[in-house]
């Protein structure tokens, strides 16, 4: 009997929540959860709060079961998870910023998203207060002889999202990297409160633009779980096709960009052209290059026509004809391998501790892929490989992406081949009482978690979105240690964490 | 490696014909342009991209401008690493409160003459984020905007058309006095 079984037996469900339960726990049980996380039996999926209540979603590793634990917090604070389980730290700092609930004895109480510049302080609290203006942010102290600091960002040299990196280096070697994020915080969760499901779906699709399909899918699935809508199987198939196209487009673009950062521009030119072909096919088939707003709760706004199937098959054939040659080029170019092999290593222990999703986790031996581990439709009926490596370096992350592109091509072909007939248009949702839904979807970057509650009128009461980047950003800090400053762009690109998705 | 290189030699370029500059954008820009700019810049523009709260999809499409299909550099348009080297700031996102100062400082660091192009609905109008406690609003709430490129995200071809309009507008700008 596991600790989760214990909880399931002894706790009452806090609300009707589907497909996994949300349990009301005591402070004691909350602490037990902290122990399970620290002991590595559970993985932290997310941690967030409402004005008087903190929620934690966990994954029990041995059984791949998910649950949300909710703790009433009457005194504006709650027992810290981050104290014993580091991955929770930034999430607890965020709870403090957004809701004003404090984690007790939190080792790091600096604000995370709140730079003191918003119109409101504690914007998600019952009564937000006036902001008190920007205060200086204290970076962690680094001491020692011959150390110097290099501040970078929020406006970077390349075309990338804003964030601040504080490098402490000894000569060329990075001794410590500290990230400061929050620059792209747009208040997505607050904008969703009270909005219609349709509007919230559009917001979710803009949490992180490169994962717009994955987010729209996760949001739709959460709404469908909450309102118990069964969508026709064709919808599942078309959605999965879109998700795999998004995965291919991002992986292909990123592999090119990683090689470019290792001064091998040829790969970027070829892979950039491939990515463009994928986006153009998406445009022709789904009416939008990135397939934004095509997946909606209850169905799809657009179906694949028989011409569309043709278009997609042509696109896949083109990739199959050129991608292997580029992979060969990557594999046989020593100057490139010289930069990517053994650079930016994430140890399997750290990847497991942080529950790192996607290729970051799988390049460091963490065998988790929501498509397989949790098995949602239609993936539960399909056979495909989840590539795993253990080196955890830039090279391993590149190879995981290469293998995933290959798997995605196979998956799309299989899905197109067996595409069931039937309608795809939206099934209307009927809501009579408040209900809650959870979903976890495998985006290109890793698992995206969404929990939401719909009120009796059918609007969004509260929605929480957790990007995989939350648990990958801290690993980037670890990966860069001991590497030279000049390798940072390379390492960073091999992670390609989302700023918008974590800042929200 | 040799095979790939050879194949690309024989294949013929992917690069497509130039699109026509956007009429609306042309109108917008021709007003605010000066002869001095034309003289100092010639037919080229250095662009500094600034993300002030984008979801990153606008960036992806700006990136695409450099792929072989659009090959933005053939028009004398190139992305630079520092605002100090830039003529144009290409801004995306509903300016977040946390990015406002960085945007203002980037603008101040850009030498005159300079232009601001707002890319995407968020940058043009604030998009879905207008009412947020964490956003200032469209780029025009912070800086004078010369050209707007709506879309969510605007496809690369639209961004290119707007930038070409900026170039053409500068050329058409008639000298006032010598
Ligand atoms: S305009 Fe659309 S694509 Fe661009 S940043 Fe805004 S939401 Fe993202």
TrEMBL record, chain A:
This is NADH-ubiquinone oxidoreductase chain 49kDa. Mg(2+) binds at residues 189, 465. The keyword Oxidoreductase applies. Keywords: Magnesium, Metal-binding, Oxidoreductase, Ubiquinone. The lineage of its organism: Bacteria, Pseudomonadati, Pseudomonadota, Alphaproteobacteria, Hyphomicrobiales. The keyword Ribosomal protein does not apply. Transmembrane segments: none annotated. Residues 273-431 form the NADH-quinone oxidoreductase subunit D domain. It holds the Pfam family Complex1_49kDa. GO terms for molecular function: NAD binding; nickel cation binding; oxidoreductase activity, acting on NAD(P)H; quinone binding. InterPro entries: ComplexI_49kDa-like, NADH_Q_OxRdtase_suD, NADH_quin_OxRdtase_su_C/D-like, Ni-dep_hyd_lsu, NiFe-Hase_large.
Automatic annotation (TrEMBL), chain B:
PANTHER family: FORMATE HYDROGENLYASE SUBUNIT 7-RELATED, HYDROGENASE-4 COMPONENT I. Its cofactor is [4Fe-4S] cluster. One of its GO terms (molecular function) is 4 iron, 4 sulfur cluster binding. This is NADH ubiquinone oxidoreductase, 20 kDa subunit. The keyword Secreted does not apply. The keyword Iron-sulfur applies. Residues 55-166 form the NADH:ubiquinone oxidoreductase-like 20kDa subunit domain. Belongs to the complex I 20 kDa subunit family. Pfam families: Oxidored_q6. Keywords: 4Fe-4S, Cell membrane, Iron, Iron-sulfur, Membrane, Metal-binding, Ubiquinone.
């Amino acid at each position: 009997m596991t600790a989760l079984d214990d909880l399931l037996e002894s706790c009452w469900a806090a609300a009707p929540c589907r497909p996994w339960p949300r349990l009301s726990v005591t402070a004691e049980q909350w602490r037990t959860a902290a122990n399970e996380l620290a002991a590595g039996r559970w993985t932290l999926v997310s941690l967030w709060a409402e004005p008087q209540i903190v929620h934690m979603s966990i994954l029990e590793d041995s059984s791949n079961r998910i649950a949300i634990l909710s703790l009433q917090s009457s005194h504006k604070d709650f027992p810290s998870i981050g104290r014993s389980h580091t991955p929770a730290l930034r999430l607890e700092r965020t709870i403090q910023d957004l809701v004003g609930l404090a984690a007790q004895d939190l080792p790091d109480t600096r604000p995370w998203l709140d730079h003191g510049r918003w119109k409101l302080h504690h914007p998600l609290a019952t009564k937000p207060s006036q902001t008190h203006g920007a205060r200086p942010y204290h970076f962690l102290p680094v001491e020692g002889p011959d150390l110097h600091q290099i501040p970078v960002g929020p406006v970077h040299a390349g075309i990338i999202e804003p964030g601040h990196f504080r490098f402490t280096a000894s000569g060329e070697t990075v001794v410590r990297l500290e990230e400061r994020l929050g620059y792209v915080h747009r208040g997505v969760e607050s904008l969703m409160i009270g909005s219609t499901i349709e509007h919230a779906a559009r917001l979710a699709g803009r949490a992180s633009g490169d994962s717009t399909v994955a987010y729209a899918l996760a949001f739709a699935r959460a709404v469908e779980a909450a309102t118990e809508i069964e969508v026709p199987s064709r919808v599942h198939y078309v959605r999965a096709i879109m998700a795999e196209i998004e995965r291919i487009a991002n992986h292909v673009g990123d592999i090119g960009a990683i090689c470019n950062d290792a001064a091998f521009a040829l790969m970027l030119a070829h892979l950039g052209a491939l990515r463009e072909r994928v986006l153009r096919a998406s445009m022709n088939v789904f009416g939008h290059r990135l397939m934004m707003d095509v997946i909606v709760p209850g169905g799809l706004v657009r179906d694949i026509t028989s011409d569309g199937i043709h278009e997609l098959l042509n696109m896949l054939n083109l990739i199959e004809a050129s991608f292997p040659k580029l992979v060969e080029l990557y594999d046989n170019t020593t100057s490139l391998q010289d930069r990517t092999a053994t650079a930016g290593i994430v140890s399997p222990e750290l990847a497991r501790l942080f529950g790192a999703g996607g290729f970051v986790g799988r390049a460091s031996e963490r065998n988790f892929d929501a498509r397989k581990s949790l098995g949602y439709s239609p993936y539960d009926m399909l056979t495909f490989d989840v590539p795993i490596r253990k080196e955890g370096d830039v090279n391993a992350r590149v190879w995981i992406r290469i293998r995933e592109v290959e798997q995605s091509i196979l998956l799309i072909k299989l899905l197109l081949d067996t595409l069931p007939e039937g309608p795809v248009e939206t099934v209307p949702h009927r809501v009579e009482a408040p209900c809650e839904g959870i979903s976890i979807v495998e985006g290109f970057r890793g698992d995206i978690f969404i929990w939401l509650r719909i009120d009796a009128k059918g609007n969004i009461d509260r929605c929480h979105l957790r990007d995989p980047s939350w648990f990958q950003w801290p690993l980037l800090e670890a990966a860069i240690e001991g590497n030279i400053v000049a390798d940072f762009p390379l390492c960073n690109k091999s992670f390609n964490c989302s700023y918008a998705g974590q800042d929200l | 490696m040799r095979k790939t290189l050879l194949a690309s030699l024989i294949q013929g370029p992917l690069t497509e014909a130039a699109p026509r500059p956007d009429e609306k954008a042309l109108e917008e820009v021709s007003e605010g342009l000066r002869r001095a700019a034309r003289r100092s810049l010639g037919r080229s523009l250095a662009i500094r991209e600034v993300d002030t709260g984008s979801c990153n999809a606008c960036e992806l499409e700006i990136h695409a401008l450099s792929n072989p299909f659009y090959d933005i550099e053939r028009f004398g348009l190139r992305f630079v690493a520092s605002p100090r080297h830039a003529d144009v700031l290409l801004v995306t996102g509903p300016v977040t409160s946390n990015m406002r100062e960085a945007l203002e400082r980037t603008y101040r660091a850009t030498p005159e003459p300079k232009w601001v192009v707002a890319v995407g609905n968020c940058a043009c109008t604030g998009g879905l984020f207008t009412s947020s406690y964490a956003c200032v609003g469209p780029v025009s709430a912070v800086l004078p905007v010369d050209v707007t490129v709506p879309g969510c995200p605007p496809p690369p071809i639209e961004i290119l058309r707007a930038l070409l309009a900026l170039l053409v507008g500068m050329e058409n700008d008639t000298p006032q006095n010598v």
